[in-house]
Amino acid sequence: QVIRKYMSGGMCGYDREGSPIWYEIIGPLDAKGLLFSASKQDLLKNKFRDCEVLQHECEKQSQKLGKKIEMVLMVYDCEGLGLKHLWKPAVETYGELLSMFEENFPESLKRLFIVKAPKIFPVAYNLVKHFLSEDTRKKVVVLGSNWKEVLQKYIDPEQIPVEYGGTLTDPDGNPKCPSKV
């Protein structure tokens, strides 16, 4: 429960080809608090479950669209990324998470867009990129100030939360779509 409450992110919409989109919101994440409140194993299990949800969503989309959907588009919102996120045990846990993703779900990442990357982002990326295969690294795209337009090239605005330059809101009108992301 602690993990569900404090880990942000979720599936929200589909790209123009029908692949599910997963958002990760990095800024508000309290890595230290999370690792003191839940075991590393529980965190990894939780993320593994998220990956299974995405895999199941790909299967549903494949049936719905009548074509093979096997990959996921990811959007990492790095606004607020700071030194607190670079705490060594958190970086190590994140590295394990990336390794688990690579081992269990190879070739399931279509593209990973990094948006709102602060100046510290290259430092953070350098700490974790060695956990990623060369193929995966090629799929990581750090977007500049025109990130909303770039997202709209790949995702219909109706599938993007207002917070990210689209027209999608929660049923209560919230532009951040917290019920999904």
Automatic annotation (TrEMBL):
The protein, known as: S14L2 protein
Pfam families according to UniProt: CRAL_TRIO
Domain of life: Eukaryota
GO cellular component, one term: cytoplasm
Native organism: Phaetusa simplex
Signal peptide: none
Domain CRAL-TRIO: start-end pairs: 1-172
SUPFAM superfamilies: CRAL/TRIO domain
